[in-house]
Write a structure and sequence with these properties.
6-stranded mixed sheet, 7 helices, Purple Acid Phosphatase, chain A, domain 2, alpha/beta, 272 residues, globular
Length: 272
């Protein structure tokens, strides 16, 4: 049976009044951990997060791939916590090219939304956690930003055109599948940004980090881990699955947990 590790981070912010916990899943690619992914779901249940975010590529974008596995995972995950889901490049290509991948993905999107999954395609949902509002925004980049033959740049003004401006009156989370544009995400102004896509760089070397990205860039800057700029944090997960080249060296599959706390270490009206 495939295995994964749990990686925990803690961030603080003056926009947080009471602590809360977020679990991030990315790049599952139809990989299962035990029957119906029971081991992964069991771990998420033990963590008991306030909500769960999907930073893209829950599905495997291949013509022969099934959508039953990701749909079943979401169905069970919703029994644990609310789920917010931003698409990755695998979801996007299945939707954009039905002549190649069939029309099943459109039905998948409709069914998971009927279940209660919040699908965020360049839009924002506000969730109330322990009496405080938290904004969760999902980015759906034009597919050309993923193409290997085109090395596009993403400017802050283009990101703002797609998403609007970040919320200033509450804690702002951004789900942005590819970390390639991490510098722009941090400039945009979200308090906490989740990315995946790079699978940790596939091979990780001491002092150098991830070796190669899916768009064939060597030693990409944002391959894995936590990156901070003032009061903004980008967390890049190594993902839970793989595809095409199933290679991981010194780079375990991981489930990401983030504990979000008030900046001064005090809950409003309480002393720790």
């Amino acid at each position: 049976m495939k295995k994964f590790v749990t990686v925990k981070y803690q961030i603080d912010s003056d926009k947080i009044k009471c602590p809360f916990t977020v679990v991030m899943v990315s790049d599952l690619h139809n990989v299962v951990f035990g029957e119906k992914t029971i081991q992964l779901l069991k771990k998420i249940g033990e963590i008991a997060p306030d909500f769960l975010v999907i930073a893209g590529d829950l599905v495997l974008g291949k013509p022969e791939a099934s959508l039953k596995e990701p749909e079943e995972f979401l169905k069970q995950a919703l029994k644990i916590a609310p789920v917010f889901y931003a698409p990755g490049n695998h979801e996007q290509r299945m939707k954009l090219y039905p002549q190649t991948y069939g029309k099943a993905y459109i039905g998948y999107e409709k069914r998971i939304q009927r279940m209660g999954v919040k699908l965020l395609e360049n839009r924002t949902e506000i969730i109330q956690i322990k009496g405080q509002d938290v904004a969760v925004t999902g980015l759906e980049l034009p597919y050309e930003y993923y193409l290997k033959r085109k090395q596009k740049t993403l400017e802050k003004r283009e990101l703002t055109r797609l998403l609007g401006k970040p919320k200033k009156d509450c804690f702002q989370i951004l789900l942005a599948h590819t970390p390639k544009y991490g510098k722009t995400y941090l400039e945009w102004g979200g308090n906490l940004i989740f990315s995946g896509h790079y699978h940790g760089g596939m091979v990780r070397l001491p002092f150098f980090g991830g070796v190669v990205s899916p768009d064939l860039r060597l030693f990409p800057r944002f391959s894995h881990g936590k990156f901070t700029q003032e009061d903004r944090h980008l967390i890049v997960g190594a993902g839970l699955g793989e595809h095409t080249i199933p290679l991981r060296i010194f780079n375990p599959r991981e489930l990401v947990v983030v504990c979000c706390t008030p900046k001064d270490g005090q809950e409003k009206g309480k002393t720790k």
